Amino acid sequence: MEIEIGKFTLESLTTGMYSEPESCYREYIQNAVDSLDSALADGLMQAQDFRIEIIVDGSRQEISIKDNGTGIKKDLVRKTLLDIGNSTKLHTTNRGFRGIGRLGGLSYCKKLSFCTTAMGESEKTLVTFDCDKLKALLVPGQSTEHNLQSVVEAVTEVRVMQEQASTHYFIVKMDGVDDISSLLDLDEVKDYISQVAPIPFKDRFYWGREIKTHLAKNGISVAEYPVFIGESFESLSQVFKPYKSIFEANSRAGVAKDEILGLSFFSINDGTQQLMAYGWYADTNFSGTLVDERLSGVRVRQGNILIGDKDTLKPYYKEARFNGWAVGEVYVVSPNLIPNARRDDFEKNNAFAEFTIGLRDTIGTEITEKIRTASKVRNNPAQKALKKVERDVAKVEEVLSTGFHSTAEKEQVASGLAATRRDLYAIPRNAPAEVIEQKSALMERLTSLATAVDESTNFRVKKDVPSNFSKAEKKVAQTWLEVLTRNFERATVDSLYREFLEELQSGGRK
């Protein structure tokens, strides 16, 4: 018996699969990243040469997404791009592996095209889908003679043109984009890509370096790719993850400032103690739900691409609302955790069941307990004061360990210690015994720290600036740090200082 696949299968794989327009950006970036990985593995290019460019031209209602990966060889283009759901990719090595992601744009434009060439070939291939014609053929009760294969043949055109043999790329282009969707809103697209794509943290996100360093020490490699976006090639700018150190939260008293005070790391293992995922979350004041939804919720990522959205892990907290109070990421490393076709969660297998248990035991329990503890502290003036002093002391100990940026910072730290001591004195003598005990211990630490700060000559510029720099050059570096310290928070100065050091160590003198 001959089996025929109906034409409406195509509709299920487009509109039905990708009901949110922005999803097509994720699918095309995902394919671009796989192509870049292949180019690196084949020795075609180095990672520093990777580039993904996205043009969102609202005036022309056009979108293009280009990568400089391997491209597709001419004799493989038809099979690769016109076979539906027949990918040769493996889920263990590729982010996209079902062979349907490239269809994501069909529902949102009049014409969808793919243009590609591979290294060493003097021709490029252009495959075009007539999306208006496709919609007409999929009208119920019309064109009943067509099946899936004949519809694809009827709405596609393949052309081969000349190209330089030294080039290699893949370009997705959407023409006549539906202007009632958000696909042409450049700011919304940037926000979406900043959360979804496998891109770096901002250089000036102080905690980003610590996250990467800690992950690397634990054998976790998080791939990052440069994604650029703009209205034209001339206006392209790189997109970064949206994380920042200071943000706003909706508390009972109104909108409150909150900040990242430290990081907690965790791992999730399966029943045989094999690592399934590794993650981080920010230790904050846990004041309430984050105002900026780009930051809220611990996000799940595989291959550094988002799975689901900000609410995906909500069911694993003891109180679902606490999901919005948290900031963090979970990096999935187990090949047994397989994203479902919509990439809004994972396939429901044994590995997924073990993963959910791990989520409840880590972020679900830990963050819930920290939120409740923070709430109790806020409602207890004495405990609140002690908590603040503990944070201040920890910051001073870190500065003493890493070194002062400048004499101005040393003076700031000394002045801050005096203010912290006053906070501690403000705790009444008739406070509970346990509070008095903590107060006494902190007072001893403060006294010791004040002496250590006064006697310290540990300035970072003295030990970090290259030895071949003259005294005058070192003086310029020190003066630069003095000015920065007087005008910016330590986290910002630290980030700028690291950039400065990298320039020095690479031989550049600005």
What does this structure look like?
This protein has 510 residues and is an alpha+beta fold. The protein folds into three domains: 8-199, Heat Shock Protein 90 (2-Layer Sandwich), CATH 3.30.565.10; 246-378, Ribosomal Protein S5, domain 2, CATH 3.30.230; 390-505, no CATH class. The protein has helices spanning 8-12, 23-41, 77-82, 131-137, 148-155, 186-196, 206-217, 350-378, 381-402, 407-425, 433-455, 460-464, 471-487, 490-505; strands spanning 52-57, 62-67, 111-117, 123-130, 156-162, 169-175, 227-230, 237-238, 246-251, 254-259, 262-269, 275-283, 289-290, 297-302, 305-307, 327-332. The longest helix is centred in the last third of the chain and has 29 residues, at 350-378. The N and C termini lie far apart (75 Å). Residues 1-8, 89-93 and 95-99 have low confidence and may be disordered.
**Count of helical stretches:** 14
Spell the H/E element sequence: HHEEHEEHHEEHHEEEEEEEEEEHHHHHHH
Please give the radius of gyration in angstroms.
27 Å
Oligomer: single chain
Q: Provide the CATH topology of the largest domain.
A: Heat Shock Protein 90
The amount of helix comes to 25-40%
* Mean pLDDT reading: 85
* β-strand amount: 15-25%
Terminal CA distance reads 75 Å
Integer count of domains: 3
The stretches of 5 or more residues where confidence is low (pLDDT under 50) are 1-8, 89-93, 95-99
What is the strand tally? 16
The H-level CATH homologous superfamily of the largest domain, spelled out, is Histidine kinase-like ATPase, C-terminal domain
Q: What is the structural class?
A: alpha+beta
The rough form would be described as: globular
Question: What's the story with the biggest beta sheet?
Answer: 8 strands, mixed
Corresponding CATH architecture of the largest domain:
2-Layer Sandwich
